[in-house]
């Protein structure tokens, strides 16, 4: 029995004919950039997120970068980021010329710790980026209170959390702006790269719409030095179909997470993810902790169970950020040595994973 870490087949096979029809529609129409599919998707995704505006862009990293650029953040500014995140959150800040300021996570949620955010604020701080890591919303009320007290923007990195809710409200409607990625493996994935920004702020939406298209609202009239980062018609057409299934697929992930939590609760040597009662997580990843992580991953692999690590090395220890010395981030470093992501995808049968974990944890503690 082998269980792959990720399998898109079960979620895509039932809609394959619809996806092909969308491809034909775009092919026949012959308009591939900034056309009616993108306009329709932007409206539908804004509606899904309970947000006023959506701007489709090239990928999740660009979505983050364009939000910061659209807010006028750049050289000389500081932006607070989680120390424990995918490196894209940091890269977006660096691309603007601003300085990422890492803050350690809360140990139970893996998300940025609001108490430590307050300590990291300086006169140069302009914004806080909250990542809804692994699909679990960050503590937005505490972060909003801090942001308001210091006059900072609050940005959501929602690349792992399409459809999640915090106190009943959709991710993507909580911050001053939110960045989404439609990388194929995300909860809402395109058949290639894609991304989007959502915001309630009409002026910011206009800035980002301009920046993604060469700084132009009108052909050959360039108001600012923009870039080229547009969600193309084909991906938008495919995403419109996939968006209709998102709630169903997220519900399947929630059921899997409950099955894991129930079946693994009594196992020795591992720590399960803890749920924040205020939020409805969408389980992009199901991440456990184990002090003998390497050994556990090896034993599971022997039983045919694929696992991954998100992420094995935090951004501040990467060569890309080696030119600078960073403050001690002991919790982040400890987590990166103990976390292990179990298979989590709609259509997965969790039983073989559960059975293998039962056996493997028993031989760990022996
Ligand atoms: C995937 C991801 C991104 C970047 O998205 P891309 O579309 O791959 O550029 C940013 N932040 C987080 C937390 C992610 O998981």
UniProtKB/TrEMBL annotation:
<dbReference type="InterPro" id="IPR000653">
    <property type="entry name" value="DegT/StrS_aminotransferase"/>
</dbReference>
<dbReference type="Pfam" id="PF01041">
    <property type="entry name" value="DegT_DnrJ_EryC1"/>
</dbReference>
<keyword id="KW-0032">Aminotransferase</keyword>
<dbReference type="InterPro" id="IPR015421">
    <property type="entry name" value="PyrdxlP-dep_Trfase_major"/>
</dbReference>
<keyword id="KW-0808">Transferase</keyword>
<protein>
    <submittedName>
        <fullName>DegT/DnrJ/EryC1/StrS family aminotransferase</fullName>
        <ecNumber>2.6.1.-</ecNumber>
    </submittedName>
</protein>
<dbReference type="GO" id="GO:0008483">
    <property type="term" value="F:transaminase activity"/>
</dbReference>
<dbReference type="InterPro" id="IPR015424">
    <property type="entry name" value="PyrdxlP-dep_Trfase"/>
</dbReference>
<comment type="similarity">
    <text>Belongs to the DegT/DnrJ/EryC1 family.</text>
</comment>
<keyword id="KW-0663">Pyridoxal phosphate</keyword>
<dbReference type="InterPro" id="IPR015422">
    <property type="entry name" value="PyrdxlP-dep_Trfase_small"/>
</dbReference>
């Amino acid at each position: 029995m082998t269980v792959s870490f990720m399998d898109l087949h079960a979620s895509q096979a039932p809609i394959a004919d619809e996806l092909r029809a969308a491809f034909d529609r775009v092919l026949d129409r012959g308009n591939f950039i900034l056309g009616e599919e993108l306009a329709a998707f932007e409206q539908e995704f804004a509606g899904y997120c309970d947000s006023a505006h959506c701007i489709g862009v090239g990928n999740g990293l660009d979505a983050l970068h364009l939000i910061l650029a659209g807010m006028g953040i750049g050289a000389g500014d500081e932006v607070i980021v989680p120390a424990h995140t995918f490196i894209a959150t940091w890269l977006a800040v660096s691309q603007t010329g601003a300085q990422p300021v890492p803050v350690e996570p809360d140990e139970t949620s893996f998300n940025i710790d609001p108490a430590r955010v307050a300590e990291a604020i300086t006169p140069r701080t302009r914004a806080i980026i909250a990542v809804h890591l692994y699909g679990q919303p960050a503590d937005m009320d505490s972060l909003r209170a801090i942001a308001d007290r210091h006059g900072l923007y609050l940005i959501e990195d929602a690349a792992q959390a399409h459809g999640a809710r915090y106190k009943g409200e959709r991710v993507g409607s909580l911050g001053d702006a939110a960045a989404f990625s439609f990388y194929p493996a995300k909860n809402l994935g395109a058949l290639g790269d894609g991304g989007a920004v959502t915001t309630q702020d009409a002026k910011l939406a206009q800035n980002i719409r301009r920046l993604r298209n060469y700084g132009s609202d009108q052909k050959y009239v360039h108001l600012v030095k923009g870039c080229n980062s547009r969600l193309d018609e084909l991906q938008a057409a495919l995403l419109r179909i996939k968006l209709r299934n998102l709630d169903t697929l997220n519900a399947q992930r929630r059921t899997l997470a409950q099955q894991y939590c129930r079946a693994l609760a009594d196992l020795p040597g591992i720590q399960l993810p803890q749920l924040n009662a205020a939020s409805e997580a969408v389980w992009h990843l199901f991440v456990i902790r184990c002090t003998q992580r390497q050994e556990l991953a090896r034993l599971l692999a022997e039983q045919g169970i694929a696992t991954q690590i998100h992420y094995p090395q935090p951004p501040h220890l990467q060569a890309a950020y080696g030119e600078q010395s960073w403050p001690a981030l002991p919790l982040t470093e400890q987590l990166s040595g103990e976390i292990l992501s179990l298979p989590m995808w709609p259509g997965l049968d969790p039983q073989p994973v559960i059975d293998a974990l039962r056996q493997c944890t028993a031989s760990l503690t022996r």
